Every structure is written in structure tokens, then in C-alpha cells.
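Teaching note: in complex prediction, the entire set of molecules is handled at once rather than each chain in isolation. The prompt given to students was simply: 'Predict the structure of this complex.' The entities are:
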Amino acid sequence: MESLGIDIKLLIAQAINFALFFFIFKKFIAKPFSNFFTEEVKKEKEKEKILVDLKDKEELMIVNQNKTKLQMKKELDEAIKKSKQEASLYKTKLVAEAGEEAEEIIVKAKKQIETEKKQAEKEIKNKVAQLSNMLISQSFDKYLSASAQKEITKNILNNLPKNIN
Amino acid sequence: MKAEIISAYKLDDSEIEEIVKSFKFLKDVAVENTVDKKIKAGFIIKYAGKIVDLSISSRLNSLKNLLYETD
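The expected output is the structure of the full assembly:
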């Protein structure tokens, strides 16, 4: 060995030195670093997971918002449509009521005209009757002679049924 | 109780007799003739709450009422 230039003691010392270095490195440097890295990776993964979750949530929220917007728009459209229908119905109802009222007014007016016409006719008829009666009465006063009166009495008696009780 | 015959002129006896003959309820009843020119012609008999109106004025009134009632 010595002829090969290898010092066995030095080799052993170096081996021990290496083993010690390896032991110390593994125990106090490599392991904490490894743990640190593992932890960091874990944290990164968690962060990514959280980000993905957040993104998912955001997307879900956007989808929900869109859904809500659509739903609101749909409801609004429905409400507008319903309102328009109700307004149309109300308008139709109002027009119908106005028509009915107008018809009622026309009927009333016609009735009133008819009543007034009848009243006027009645009054004219009464006047004519009064006038006729007055004329006949005056004619009788003027032209009915005593002989004519006697003739009337005779005529009445002749036309009476016999033996009235 | 007297019966009253209202006429537009003074009735003569024959006319009164004819009237009495025509109405049985006037038999044996004293009759008094009253003149009322308003009745124009004909006569009205009033006796015991009964009135028989055969005057021209009542006919005229009937005619007037008929004219009123006719549509």
C-alpha cells in the first residue's frame, strides 16, 4: 500500500472525517434543508390549491352572478311583460267601461228626450183638448137655441132605455 | 124628499113627465126643476144621493177626458 503512495492511516482518518462530515451534514444541514424545501413545496402546493380554489370560487361566483343577472333580467322581462299585459287589460277595461258609460249616457239622453217629447206631446194634446172644449162650449153658448135645447132633451129621453131604476 | 132636475132652460110639464116616466126611482117623488145655463143642454137628476148626469157639459167633459187619454 505504501508503495502505491496510499497512507492507510490517512485514508482511515479521511474516511472517518468523511463519515463525520456526512453524519453532520445529513443531520444538521441536509435534513433541515430537506424539511424546509418539503415545507416550502407543501406551502406552494397549498397556495396553488388555494389559488385554484379561489379561481374556482371566482368562476363559480361569476357564473352565479351571470345566472343571477340572467334570472333578474328574466324576472324583469316577465314583470315588464306582465305589467304591459295588465296595462293592456286595464286599458281595455277602461275603454269598455267608458264605452258602457257613453252607452248609458246615450240611453239616458234618449230616454230623457223621449220623456220630454211625450211630455210636450201631452201638453200640446191637453192644450188642444182644452181649446177644442172651449170652442165647442162657446159655440154651444152662442148658437144653441131654445128649440135646439128642447130637441136635445127629447133626443136624450128617446134614446134612454125604458124604466131605469 | 124632493128630486131635483137641473136643466139649461125651464122644462115644461110634458118634459118633466117624460123624465119621471123614464126613471122608476122618480115615481111618486116630488120633482123640482132648477135652471143652470152652465150645463148647455140636457139635464141632471139629483135624488137621494144619486146623480144622473145627461147634460151636454158632462158630455163635453167626457170628450175632453177622452182627448187627454188618447195616445
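Point out the following to students. The beta strands of chain B are 3-7, 31-35, 42-47, 50-55. Chain B has one domain: 3-69.
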